[in-house]
């Protein structure tokens, strides 16, 4: 059964984007070129600022929970 979780003002929404989608690089577009951003300059990208909700379409038996 599908499950929808709204992100705004939740722990899921407050988590940084890289918690869900780990990344080694971030880039900025400058003069039409992708320029790497040093990790020290990365800013927090809360999931709730990137997405409204997450949708789970897998089987209920496969849903896991973690603190």
What is the structure about, briefly put?
With 67 residues, this protein is of the alpha+beta class. The chain contains 3 helices and 4 strands; from the N terminus they run βααββαβ.
| Total count of domains | 1
Portion of residues within helices: 10-25%
Q: What class would the helix/strand composition place it in? A: alpha+beta
Q: How many helices?
A: 3
Shape: elongated
Which residue ranges are poorly predicted, with pLDDT under 50 across at least 5 consecutive positions? none
Strand order of the largest sheet: 1-4
Beta-strand fraction estimate: 15-25%
Query: What string gives the helices and strands in order?
Result: EHHEEHE
Number of strands: 4
Mean pLDDT figure: 88
Largest sheet: 2 strands, antiparallel
Rounded Rg: 15 Å
Distance between the termini: 23 Å
Question: What does it look like?
Answer:
The protein has 67 residues and is of the alpha+beta class. The protein has one domain (3-62). It is built from three helices and four strands, in the order βααββαβ. The protein has a two-stranded antiparallel ribbon with strand order 1-4. Strands 2-3 form a two-stranded antiparallel ribbon. A hairpin with a 2-residue loop joins strand 2 and strand 3. It is elongated and about 45 Å long.
């Amino acid at each position: 059964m599908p499950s929808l979780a709204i992100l705004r003002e939740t722990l899921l929404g407050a988590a940084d984007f890289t918690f869900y989608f780990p990344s080694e690089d971030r880039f900025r577009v400058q003069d039409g070129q992708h320029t790497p951003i040093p990790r020290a300059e990365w800013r927090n990208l809360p999931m709730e600022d990137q997405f409204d909700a997450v949708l789970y379409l897998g089987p209920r038996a496969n849903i896991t929970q973690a603190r």
